[in-house]
Amino acid sequence: MPSSITNAAVHEEQRLTLLERCRLMNTAQERSYDLIVEGLARLYGVPIALITFLDGQRQFIKANVGTDVREMPVTESLCQYTLESDSPLVLPDLTQDWRCHSHSLVTGDEELRFYAGAPIIVDGYRLGTVCIFDRVPHSANDLDASLLVHMAMMVAATIKARSENPRAPVSYPRYRAPQNEA
């Protein structure tokens, strides 16, 4: 087996172990996470905002606004593409994206047209996403994804603190917005 495939398999195994250790899947909704998605939906003016975690088989929705869905197979998830990078993913028009144009969330009853998400990274592993959706396309130029990144960092800090000491107060990392270079 080539080393890159072996390394990827080992990395995925370690990611899933961390996800299990943090006890994020199959848990009740929590007001602290609900407040984040409620705020994101209002700030971005979108009907749907989620905090999700993905294991090898499914996407578990920890917090949601605008949908009652609590889980789905990873293969039906748009958030799976966000976990491919440490950077936020913005898809201005899902009907124009090669990964999503024939996806059931785009062509089916949901008729989603816009997606933006940032990975939740704990100890170097992408465990899930903070994301927003809309039923109309958006311009990528009009979206400041730095707030999504900031919220993903807050969720990651909360997870890390809880996994290390469930009774400890949570402290958040210092966030610096990207500087526009002239």
Distance between the termini: 47 Å
Number of helices: 4
User: What's the average pLDDT?
Assistant: 84
Q: State the shape.
A: globular
The whole-angstrom Rg is: 16 Å
Q: According to CATH, what is the topology?
A: Beta-Lactamase
Number of distinct beta strands: 6
- Shape-level CATH architecture: 2-Layer Sandwich
Uncertain runs: none
Strand order of the largest sheet: 3-2-1-6-5-4
CATH class group: Alpha Beta
The proportion of strand residues reads: 15-25%
- Tell me the structural class: alpha+beta
Main beta-sheet strand count, sense and barrel state: 6 strands, antiparallel
Order of helices and strands: HHEEEEHEEH
Overall tally of domains: 1
Q: How much helicity do the residues have?
A: 25-40%
How would you describe the overall organization of this protein?
The protein is of the alpha+beta class. The chain has one domain: Beta-Lactamase (2-Layer Sandwich). The chain contains 4 helices and 6 strands. The protein has a 6-stranded antiparallel sheet. Strand 5 and strand 6 form a beta hairpin. The longest helix is centred in the first third of the chain and has 19 residues.
